[in-house]
Amino acid sequence: MPKKSSHRPSPSDPAALPDAFAGWFAARGWVPRPHQLALLSAARAGRSALLVAPTGAGKTLAGFLPTLVELAGEEGKGGLHTLYISPLKALAVDIARNLEAPVAEIGLEQRIRIETRTGDTPSHKRSRQVARPPHILLTTPEQLALLVAHREAAALFRGLKRVVLDELHALVTSKRGDLLSLGLARLHRLAPGLATTGLSATVREPDALRRYLVPQVPAPALADLITVQGGARADLHMLETGRTLPLAGHTAWQSMPAVYDLIRRHKLVLVFVNTRLQAEYTFQELWNLNDDGLPIALHHGSLDATQRRRVEAAMAAGVLRAVVCTATLDLGIDWGDVDLVINIGAPKGASRIMQRIGRANHRMDEPSKAYLVPANRFEMLECRAALDAVEEAAQDTPDPRIGALDVLAQHVLGMACAGPFSDDNLYDEVRAASPYADLTRDDFLLVLDYVATGGYALRAYERFAKILRGPDGLWRVRDARTAQQYRMNVGTIIESTTVKVRLARRNRTKPGSVLPAGGRVLGEIEEDFAETLTVGDTFLFAGEILRFEGLHEDEALVTRGPPGTDPAIPSYAGSKFPLSTFLAARVRALIADPFEWDRLPAQVAEYLVQQRRRSVLPGPRDLLVETFPRANRHYLACFPFEGRLAHQTLGMLLTRRLERAGMRPLGFAANDYGLAVFGTRDLSERIGREPGFLDALFAQDMLGDDLEEWLDESAMIKRTFRQCAVIAGLIERRHPGQRKTGRQVTISTDLIYDVLRKHQPGHLLLRAARQDAATGLLDVARLGMMLARIQGRIIHKALDRVSPLAVNVMLEIGRERVYGEGADEILAEAEAALLGEALA
Amino acid sequence: MMGQTGGRPAPERKDDTVALPLKLEKTHKTPGVTLAGETLALDLSGGVWLPEHRTLVVSDLHLEKGSAFAARSGQFLPPYDTRETLACLHEAVARLDPARVVCLGDSFHDAQGPSRLDVADRALIAALQDGRDWIWISGNHDRAVQDGIGGRFADTLTIGGLTLRHEPLAKPEPGEVAGHFHPVGKVAMRGRAVRRRCFVLDATRLVMPAFGSLTGGLNVRDKAFDELFPGGFTAHLIGDGRVFAISRTMLTRD
């Protein structure tokens, strides 16, 4: 690996910097950090390595240093040397820009060509990049998939020395990570001397990432691990406003004046929220309080890209005082000098909150300053648990994934586009990718068959096969059109269908009507939502109250709402991320231990005291089930603390079982902490009369037939199936801006699902959808762990009225929509009535 | 407008064989409606039964839609749509024993559909036609299909006071029975939404739901239906156990 060069240090010191680099560090008054040298040393030994470091540790420079040193020593050699993969295209572009300075200062700008390649790169430049590649190419997982499927891929990557994977902890948790792992496996095959460098924030299990970086064939292997300890401890607090928080709701309106005050006292504040709608609401509230006219901006995924870029540029230029944002700013780029992070609502996970806190003050040795702002009393518990976790630097990043079959199908077609392959070789190559290390040969052949002809037992499509096996035993892509189709459908991110929101101009000649064209695009909203709007409806979007004027072609036309309009916030989804198992366990432990309560705000402690008086507080491993009557209905409430998704699944299954037991359930409601099922029959009486009723109700066997039956008909599995069908290329992706031309153009995946389930229930895509459901939307895996945990540990309380703990979940019932500013008042009213009843 | 979920009540099937169900004991409540003096029974299968003429009308079978996609676009939809559709048709035929079956256009998804039929499916069609008058009305998808698949071919057909054609005329025509639009209706109550295929009816005309298993639907709140039924309509939604008559005001958009 190491090249002969005059800069080459003595072999006895593999971490020594060449003079030009040592001089560059010295000139800036810097000393190379140990982990930067450790990576250099690993690179010189040709080894792959994972660098785990907190923000501000100089990870990026560490990642590129070996490449720059090697390229500095090479005289005029061409060819692609290093590939850098980032989860965000904006990050790739930003890193390229940040590399230019050191490269110029070390005097390498004539020698090292650095380029980016994203979806925005013009096609002539992309072709040139393949024919005459730069030394360093910065790109995204999707672009890598397209590159390895290119017919020139072998030539392009033959001399590749290094792949740098940035924010690896974030990449590996999704199907994008599966796709990337397969691309990496191909790179390892094309460039046998290839070494990888993973850059990651602190994670729970570094070994999973170490496996991800190196081929697992012929034998399981681990990349080297370089860990940077600590950094300064975060200066983290829960925001105490002295006001009594409600028992439910996610808007945190009580805390807005305090949040605004914090913004006034800092230079640049990032205000994180969990959903786009919370972002809109928070922005609106802050704007109402903004008597000082502070420059506050809004940043979330539905906003028009150019608008987002403007906000980012303004942050970097230092002209903003605060940005209200969602996960869109979780990762990556340093946009200016953030001196405070505020997280509104529940933290949901310890690692997530640490990542967000790290956005403040990107220097490792100084503490990041952050406030957690709970929106209700339960969130106070969750915030307390998160504070403890951060204090201990405990992590709750998810488990490594099992590679998805739909992603593999996409990749197999891509590999056929690259050139002929034998199934033996490709099978070995795929298993080199750690998510697919345990893939059986049978499953691989099923995927191959699926790609070729759809994988149907009825062999109807042989003559249309997309990949064909020649007499030489090699598989080839059918034709150029199929390859084109692959390129159009690559990637694993399935956007929900959206329509553009365009500001319309009023028609002067015809008052009350608007002209369809001319205004600017504000962003996009989900098509489902757009179609529920009727002319005259108002909603919050892009920080403004907009009036819906109608759908024109594929755009929603809007005008600005008159001042004082009460906007209708649609289908308030609450929190997008489910509570992590780890934080949930901590919340349960907090509740169970009264000695911990003095660390909680008084109003929460008081609330728990009330709960203990009226009902009982469950132990950390117990499940409390309460039954009580209320307003001619009978309720069953339980508190597993396993997150909304697992609770929704549990709610569906309990409802089915209660139905079968003749208890006539009418419905249920769930949130992150618990769920309540309601019906017309007396549950307390039945449980009292029939010992073992509850144990049977919560028995683990509900994950058998009941789950299967329900799963197969649930809307959620159909949504999951649609994603698998698009990723696997069963149906084509709808591209933004692509015009709908009639009702026969798209084919309903729900109908496909129904037909397939009936005629071939074992089909590959149905399996893929079920696998997704188990870990994703339905969180069956987590529900299973919970059911195992509570066996024999169910504590039942028959009450004559709702308990303090149950109020929180009861308030979810019937909450389909929350309306504008008046909404929380209405909720507060409902809550006050319920609470009065509970504490009477 | 694009969400094309059309809940289709699946016929009872206990095994995975191709054997067709013959569940005659199940009571099919079929509300009788009157159009141009004729009695029409709106069948749970999605067909219309004319008892006085012993005629079964089904619309928009879209047979071989799956293979049409495979041939044309490389999207390999499950190749079971034809068999599924024919199984439903067989169920209705076995139950009602019609003297005449009218397929109201778009019986095949494209002109090459018949040539792609599986041998077993072709035999199934022949068996269904056996001993019956079978009429293929031409539709916009299958106008070019004119022979080779048994039965007779026509553009329109008059039965008593009824005129059967694929695409409804722009102007209301008394006694017209048509298809083409694949109507579905959606009812949302108490946080739950149900979206089903439906018959759309006023005093003068009837638009039938699509019978095919992979056919999507157009919500009856689309303006196309306002133009066809300027005076409003009643939608008869196909439920799991019977057909429900629902007023336009109770129906929501997608």
Write the layout of secondary structure elements.
The complex is a heterodimer of chains A (840) and B (254).
Chain A: H1 19-27, H2 34-44, E1 49-52, H3 59-73, E2 82-85, H4 89-105, E3 114-117, H5 123-131, E4 136-139, H6 141-148, H7 153-157, E5 162-165, H8 168-171, H9 175-190, E6 195-200, H10 206-213, E7 224-227, E8 235-238, H11 256-264, E9 269-272, H12 276-289, E10 296-299, H13 305-316, E11 322-325, E12 340-344, H14 350-357, E13 369-373, H15 377-392, H16 405-418, H17 423-432, H18 441-453, E14 467-469, E15 475-477, H19 480-488, E16 498-503, E17 505-506, E18 514-515, E19 521-526, H20 527-530, E20 538-541, E21 544-552, E22 555-560, H21 581-592, H22 602-614, E23 623-630, E24 633-638, H23 644-660, E25 665-670, E26 675-679, H24 683-689, H25 693-697, H26 705-713, H27 715-727, H28 749-759, H29 764-775, H30 780-790, E27 794-798, H31 804-810, H32 820-839
Parallel strand pairs in A: 1-6, 1-7, 2-4, 2-5, 3-4, 5-6, 8-13, 9-11, 9-12, 10-11, 12-13, 16-22, 23-27
Antiparallel strand pairs in A: 14-15, 16-19, 17-18, 20-21, 21-22, 23-24, 24-26, 25-26
Helix pairs in contact in A: 2-3, 6-9, 9-17, 11-12, 14-15, 15-21, 16-18, 16-19, 23-30, 27-29
Chain B: E1 32-35, E2 38-42, E3 48-50, E4 55-58, H1 65-73, H2 81-96, E5 100-103, H3 113-116, H4 119-129, E6 133-137, E7 152-154, E8 156-159, E9 162-165, E10 176-178, E11 183-189, E12 192-201, E13 205-207, E14 218-219, H5 223-228, E15 234-238, E16 243-247
Parallel strand pairs in B: 4-5, 5-6, 6-7, 9-10, 10-13, 11-14
Antiparallel strand pairs in B: 1-2, 2-3, 3-4, 8-9, 11-12, 12-13, 12-15, 15-16
